[in-house]
């Protein structure tokens, strides 16, 4: 085995430098036994504030989020979903299917005001290896079956 920086064996050096010993660990800080996304920002107060905000959002669902949650909870679509999940130390995803690395965002009127921020978020999630899928809140309330079929298609890839 080759030597890495400072005389440390190369595999250990790579694990320390990238956050893991193989692509999955290094890629997004996730392993098969730990499905919690790695917080890239190690600032504990910021992480705590983001987790508190996510907890508050989980407690107060919007009508469209409640509709979707009733249809995806309990592996009803063949995938486990989590709600209001902090990601990358900066974002809170409305829904996350960790095994598929699929982030679903319910776009309401609020997102029309922050299109540039949404583009930056989408790019950061793509760099981290997550597929991003935006679902219009009006579609959820108007035609839930069409919305669910789009979620199924996104899960298939």
Write structural notes for this entry.
The protein is α+β, with helices and mostly antiparallel strands. The chain has two domains: 1-34, no CATH class; 35-156, VSR Endonuclease (Endonuclease, Chain A, 3-Layer(aba) Sandwich). The chain has helices spanning 10-18, 23-28, 44-59, 63-72, 109-112, 115-127, 137-142, 144-156, and strands at 82-87, 91-97, 102-107, 131-136. The protein has a four-stranded mixed sheet with strand order 1-2-3-4, sandwiched between helices. The longest helix has 16 residues, at 44-59. The radius of gyration is 18 Å and the shape is globular. The relative contact order is 0.12. The model is unreliable at 8-34 (pLDDT under 50).
| Helicity range | 40-55%
Name the beta content range. Answer: 15-25%
pLDDT < 50 stretches: 8-34
Alpha-beta content class: alpha+beta
Q: What's the end-to-end separation, in Å?
A: 38 Å
Shape: globular
Give the class-level CATH name of the largest domain: Alpha Beta
Number of domains: 2
Radius of gyration: 18 Å
Descriptive key words:
157 residues, alpha+beta, Endonuclease, Chain A, 2 domains, four-stranded mixed beta sheet, 4 strands
A few lines on this structure:
This protein has 8 helices and 4 strands. The chain has helices spanning 10-18, 23-28, 44-59, 63-72, 109-112, 115-127, 137-142, 144-156, and strands at 82-87, 91-97, 102-107, 131-136.
SSE topology:
Layout: H1 10-18, H2 23-28, H3 44-59, H4 63-72, E1 82-87, E2 91-97, E3 102-107, H5 109-112, H6 115-127, E4 131-136, H7 137-142, H8 144-156
Parallel strand pairs: 3-4
Antiparallel strand pairs: 1-2, 2-3
């Amino acid at each position: 085995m080759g030597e890495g920086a400072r005389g440390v064996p190369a595999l250990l050096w790579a694990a320390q430098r990238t956050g893991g010993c193989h692509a999955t660990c290094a890629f997004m800080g996730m392993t098969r036994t730990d499905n919690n996304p790695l917080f890239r920002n190690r600032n504990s107060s910021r992480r705590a504030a983001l987790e508190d905000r996510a907890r508050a959002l989980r407690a107060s669902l919007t009508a469209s989020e409640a509709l979707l949650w009733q249809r995806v909870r309990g592996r009803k679509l063949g995938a486990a979903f989590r709600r209001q999940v902090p990601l990358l130390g900066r974002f809170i995803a409305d829904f996350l299917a960790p095994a598929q690395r699929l982030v679903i965002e319910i776009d309401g009127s609020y997102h029309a005001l922050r299109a540039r921020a949404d583009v930056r978020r989408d790019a950061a999630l793509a760099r981290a290896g997550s597929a991003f899928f935006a679902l219009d809140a009006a579609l959820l309330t108007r035609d839930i079956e069409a919305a669910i079929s789009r979620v199924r298609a996104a899960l298939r890839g």
